[in-house]
Design goal:
Elements (H helix, E strand, L loop, with lengths): L1 E3 L2 H4 L5 E3 L29 E4 L4 E3 L7 E6 L6 H12 L1 H6 L2 E7 L3 H11 L4 E4 L4 H5 L3 E6 L2 E6 L2 E5 L5 E5 L7 H8 L2
Parallel strand pairs: 5-6, 6-7
Antiparallel strand pairs: 1-2, 3-4, 3-7, 5-10, 8-9, 10-11
Amino acid sequence: MNEYYCTLAVFEGYKCIAKSTSRRSSYIAGSFFMDKILYPGDMAPDFSGLDQNGEPVTLSQFRGQKVVLYFYPKDDTPACTAQACNLRDNIAVLQQKGIVVLGVSIDKSKKHKKFEEKYQLPFTLIADEDKELVQLYGVWGAKKFMGRTYTGTHRVTFLINESGKIDHIIDKVVTKDHTAQILSYWQ
């Protein structure tokens, strides 16, 4: 395994680690600034967190089902709302295929609850206030917006199969058509 140091990540103190170049095309752009990089075929890291109702949620409780684990920056922003509403509008199709949807952001459970109620979201939203999940999945890192570099959550979706392995990673999410992206991998 080769180790690389990223100039954008140095100020954050992160060491970048890349796996073999043969799999380079499947790495997550956001993960390039983190110690953790996940690839299709890897076991999805188990986690536990609280949902929008304050109830505990673990990935392992969905073993035996396909899971869409999508990370997004913030509740009730235009792109995040478009993505959530696209999943909401197509939830029946996803459920028919045995797919469970779990959304994760660093917002608090109360904010998730308001987001769920405002847009009538029929799926679980996990609060990751301490940033454990975003770091575990390697989606927390340097971002650029209007010439400013800051640290935040990258919009990335992990498609996890029934045995708990990552089948696909979508790092170029089309928020208004996210369900079609998911179904293009899981037909």
